[in-house]
Amino acid sequence: MNGFEYEAYRKDGSRVWISENTRAVHSPNGEILYFEGIFEDITDRKRAEEALRESEERFRTIFEQAPLGISEGEIATARFINANQRYIDILGYTIDELRKLTFRDYTHPDDLQKDLVEFQKLAAGEIRTYAMEKRYIRKDGAIIWVNLTVTGLAYPGEKPLNCIAVIEDITDRIQAEERLRRSEEKFKALFDLAPVGIAFLDSRLNIVDCNPALERMSRLSREELLGAAWQRRTFLNADGSPRLRGERVSERAVSEKRLVNGVETGALMESGDVVWAEVSVAPLAVPDARAVVIMQDITERKQTEQAQERGLSLMLATLESTADGILVVNTEGKIVTFNRLFAQMWRLSEEVLASKEDARALECVLDQLMEPEKFLEKVHYLYRHPEEKSFDRLVFKDGRVFERYSRPQLIGGKVAGRVWSFRDVTERKRAQAALRESEERFRLLAEVTNDAIWDWDLTTNDLWWNEGFETLFGYSRAEIEKTIDSWYNRVHPAERNRVISGIHRTIDEGGTMWSDEYRFLCKDGSYAYVLDRGHVIRDAEGKAVRMVGGMRDLTERNKAEEAAQAFPTELLRAQDEERRRIAREIHDSTAQELAVVAMNLGRLEEWIEGRDPWAENLLADSLAILTQGNRDLRTLAHLLHPPMLEELGLIGAIRDYVEGFSARSGIEVELEFSEDFERCPSETETALFRVVQESLSNVHRHSESKFALVKLTRIDDIIELTIADRGRGLPAGLLTGTAEDARIGVGISGMRQRIVQLQGRLDITSNKEGTTVRAVLPCSQKGVRAQNESEK
After folding, report:
1. Do 295 and 315 touch, CB atoms closer than 8 A?
2. CATH number for domain 324-424, candidates 3.30.450.20, 3.30.1330.60, 3.40.640.10, 3.30.470.20
3. Do residues 165 and 144 make contact, with C-beta atoms less than 8 angstroms apart?
4. What's the pLDDT score for residue 596?
5. Helix (H, G, I), strand (E, B) or coil at 775
6. In the prediction, which pLDDT does 744 show?
7. Rounded Cα gap, residues 686 and 691, in angstroms
8. What is the pLDDT of residue 111?
9. Could you give the strand order of the β-sheet that contains 462-465, starting from the edge strand earlier in sequence?
């Protein structure tokens, strides 16, 4: 007997397991002589086998009854060895079907690669276990999510041959998470795109999250909102009064643990604007937020309401301040509203007005009218025809005149009553009568005057001329346009812009009188010089509506003035010619003759020397006086007309004159001019030289300056001469013509007249720091045009 195993009891009562191998020993004749055997104590092995059996039983129980799917597979082939019922239920395959598959066959394609990577590491012994969440495809095609854990089965130091896979069906959790994610995405989209401002507050009522709409409403960035910048602003109640701390909507909602809904709140911006919102706050019981705030921007609505309130107030104020009496009566004959002026105009008592009865008010006014029956008939007609409009005049027995306007009151397109408007035009009618009389007098005056009288309607641009226009300028009435163009187009082109701008400036700037002198085209093509004056007539609001004026012919007067103006020019020219003649006469005749006398006296002095001392002294004195007189006479000739002016031109003459002036006066004169200064007409050079003479003479007489500057420049055809000193200035009355030394005033006047006659100008500025004389004039006709342009 081999390998017989049995349990035996030891002497001490304990049990042991014995493995017995026994055989019979036979005699030669075949009889059993005895038995011999080997007994082995296999108690430890049997206990180990029992423990293994119990372990396998427990594993089998867990394997079969576990709520998780468990499978055993061969690593080399990746095929199933076994799987429990939960594994089968999760995947929907039978055990036989699973044994024909590998995990690759039912793994979702998008998750296969990451599973293979980990499985290969397990097979190589690099890892003992791995876990992941992945998708399987059930037999019925449904996709499920599982939490997979794979563990290799191997002895220490060896690669695993088999593996255990445990899967947990987490499809419901994944789907719940996906629904939560989608819900959060929807909430986030709603949160970000909501037109209302939304904010979550923490336990200290600070903002922990907010949406873009709140940033736009508050005009603060997200960082500023989370940083509590909004709490530094002043908040307002619906009536505009400041809201105190403790009264804020969020504080009330959290402290009272209830929804506070639709509270109008204003926020005063840093710019001074107010943003209005309808605020609702609800408490929350979540860890990271204590309250949610929703704000609807109602700024436009609030502004509209405020505008409506202002409009209503304005309407009531307008109703009371209008110059018309207003009465509103509904379709039932009840007085809806009226202004105080209406009551005053119709002299209605408070009792009648308080009754709100239109019929009673009508009874009280009939006795005031000249034609009460006609008045009442029109009222009843309009009440029978509610959609008609009306206008008429009412004459009172006391002489008053009212204009009556009436139109239906429409609400929602339907007639709700009638609006009556009464305007007292008594004074206007009287004024119109007076105006008709005044206009008649104006027409009569316009007919008898020799001036051209015009009447310009500024609203229509119609222009009326009297017969004097025909007489002065030669046009027939048929040739005169009846619009303002009849005037515009006949003003001389060179003066048209100035004249038209001037008259419109008077109109636009609120002026009442305008006048100007200009040339006006006559029918024969010539231009008449006219003095035109106009008076602006404005309405009660100050708007210019009419302009009346007259044109007077100044042609003959201007010719006389031109002749008078030409006289000084001729006089100055004659004066210069006479000075030139006298200077030449002195130089060529008188000075030469005196020189001969001096030579004779010199010879006489030589002859008488030593003979008669008294006569010798007398002769010497006479010779000295004669020599000085001759010198003074030559100086006078030089001043009357410097010969250097013709010989060397303006620059040489000024330099020569300044040299002598400095020697005589001791005043240092600095000259500034270019050496290539071209010659100018003799009249121009003479005028400029006289300005230098007169100016330096004034420096010597009045300024007490030891320095003077003479500067002469020429740009194109414009010459500018400047004489400046550093003295005490000219006498106060010199420039105004009231100085005691009349000669000085005459000198300045002469300088100015010379320059003006040459189309130039002379400017003199004088103060305690010195005097500057500046002359600017053209050198040719081109220069004249350039000078005129610069003055414009």
Report:
1. no
2. 3.30.450.20
3. no
4. 60
5. strand
6. 45
7. 9
8. 94
9. 462-465, 452-457, 544-553, 527-538, 513-521
Reduce the DSSP state of residue 222 to 3 states and report it. helix
In order, the DSSP letters of 336-403 are: EEE-HHHHHHHT--HHHHHHTBHHHHHHHHGGGBS-HHHHHHHHHHHHHSTT--EEEEEEBTTS-EEE
In CATH, 66-176 is 3.30.450.20: yes
Q: Which fold has domain 429-553?
A: Beta-Lactamase (3.30.450)
Structure tokens at 328: 């509103």
Q: How far apart are CA 368 and CA 349, in angstroms?
A: 14
3 state DSSP class of 84: coil
Which residue numbers in the chain have pLDDT < 50? Answer: 446, 448, 737-746, 781, 783-788, 790-792
Cα–Cα distances (Å) from 37 to 21, 34, 46, 74, in that order, read 5, 10, 20, 44
For residue 592, give both structure tokens. 């030469």
482-to-84, 397, 465, 535, 738 alpha-carbon distances in Å = 117, 44, 8, 19, 53
Query: What is the pairing mode between strands 707-715 and 718-725?
Result: antiparallel
By the 8 A CB rule, do 778 and 691 touch?
Answer: no
CA angle 485–489–492, rounded 5-degree value: 145
Contact between residue 68 and residue 167 where contact means Cβ atoms under 8 Å apart: yes
Residue 482 corresponds to which amino acid?
K
Categorise residue 447: left if φ over 0, alpha if ψ from -120 to 50, beta otherwise: alpha
Q: What is the pLDDT of residue 792?
A: 43
Copy the structure tokens of residue 244: 């105190």
Residue 325 CA: distances (Å) to CA of 362, 395, 404, 420, 705: 15, 16, 10, 8, 80
Across 245-261, b (16+ Cβ under 10 Å) vs e yields eeebbbeebbeeeeebe
Query: Residues 751, 756, 761, CA angle at the centre, nearest 5°?
Result: 85
8-state DSSP, 543:
-
Query: pTM higher than 0.90 for the full model?
Result: no
- Please state the domain extents for the chain: 66-176, 194-304, 324-424, 429-553, 554-641, 643-791
Q: Of all residues in the chain, what percent are helix, strand and coil, respectively (each to 5)?
A: 45, 30, 25
The pLDDT score that the predictor gives to residue 145 is 95
DSSP code of residue 334: B
User: CA torsion sign, 642 to 644 to 646 to 650?
Assistant: negative
| Closest C-alpha to 147, from 135, 133, 157 | 133
Q: Do 194-304 and 324-424 show the same overall fold?
A: yes
The tokens of 628 are what?
Answer: 């000085």
735: helix, coil or strand?
coil
Q: Taking a C-beta distance cutoff of 8 angstroms, is the pair 38, 20 a contact? A: yes
CA distances from 192 to 210, 284, 297 (A): 9, 20, 16
CATH number for domain 194-304, candidates 1.10.3720.10, 3.30.450.20, 3.20.20.70, 2.60.120.10 = 3.30.450.20
Per-residue model confidence (pLDDT) at position 745:
45
N- to C-terminal Cα separation, the chain: 150
Q: Is residue 705 within 8 Å of residue 727, measured between CB atoms? A: yes
Which pLDDT does position 47 carry in this prediction?
74
Q: Is the dihedral of CA 442, 447, 451, 455 positive or negative?
A: positive
| Fold of domain 643-791 | Heat Shock Protein 90 (3.30.565)
Q: Cβ–Cβ contacts within 10 Å for residue 401, how many?
A: 17
Q: Is the distance from CB of 294 to CB of 197 less than 8 angstroms?
A: yes
**DSSP secondary structure string, 475-535?**
--GGGS-SBTHHHHTTB-HHHHHHHHHHHHHHHHTT-SEEEEEEEEE-TTS-EEEEEEEEE
Kindly give, in sequence order, each residue whose CB lies less than 8 Å from that of residue 538, ignoring residues fewer than 6 positions away: 512, 544, 545
Both tokens of 524, joined, read 């024969």
Burial class (CB in 10 A: 0-12, 13-18, 19+), 412: exposed
